[in-house]
Automatic annotation (TrEMBL):
GO BP terms in the entry: meiotic DNA double-strand break formation; meiotic DNA double-strand break processing; reciprocal meiotic recombination
Residue ranges constituting the Topoisomerase 6 subunit A/Spo11 TOPRIM domain according to the UniProt record: 1-60
GO molecular function, one term: DNA binding
GO cellular component: nuclear chromosome
InterPro entries associated with the record: Spo11/TopoVI_A, Spo11/TopoVI_A_sf, TOPRIM_Topo6A/Spo11
UniProt-recorded name of the protein: DNA topoisomerase 6 subunit A
Top-rank taxon: Eukaryota
Length: 66
């Protein structure tokens, strides 16, 4: 992660909409602490059809995004 990524993560942790979702807080803290980030491109190995037909619709349905 770049210093800007770390700053963005810390800034997000201060947002009320993030504080209301403990899962997001946990994941952001882990990312900031480990200085590693996860990106959706990492899932492309499963194929773009998986992303568009399974992963993204599920995330949107569950309102589980950051």
């Amino acid at each position: 992660m770049t210093e800007q990524d770390i700053k963005t993560g810390k800034d997000l942790l201060e947002e009320d909409f993030v504080k209301k979702n403990p899962g997001w807080v946990e994941e952001l803290n882990l990312m900031v602490k480990s200085k590693q980030k996860a990106e959706i491109q990492a899932l492309s190995s499963f194929g773009f059809q998986y992303l568009t037909e399974m992963y993204l619709p599920l995330k949107l349905q569950q309102k589980d995004w950051l």
